[in-house]
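Sequence only, no structure available. Ideas?
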Amino acid sequence: MRASPSLGFAPRLPTAISRLAFRVCYRGRHLSITVTADSATYDLLDGPPLTMTHHGALVELGERSVALAIPPIAATPTPTQPPGRSPARRVTAQPFPARAPGRDGRPASGR
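Reply:
I predicted one. C-alpha cells follow.
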C-alpha cells in the first residue's frame, strides 16, 4: 500500500495463501480489500468517492465494488554475483585431534 500522493495497491499473494481480506481507513473513508491469486476487489464502505491506483492504473471507487485482475509477474533474468565478489569455496573440515589422556590415565573430557 502506498499513500503518497494518493492511495495505491499492487497486491500479490504467496502461493501458500489463497485469500487475504482486510480493511483500511484512509482520509475519512473506509475501504474493504479482498485479494486472491488472480484478482483484487475494492469496496468503499463509507465516505466520499475515492480515486486510487491498482498496479499503477487509476481506479475510481464509489458505490459499487470494483474487481480487478492482478497482472502476471514479468520474468526477469537470474541475478549474478558482481565481478570479484563470488562466494569462496568452503574447505572440508578436518576432525579434531584426539585429546591426550588426563593425569589419571582416563581419556580427557570436553573441558
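The beta strands are 8-9, 19-26, 29-36, 39-46, 50-54, 57-61, 66-69.
Hope that gets you unstuck.
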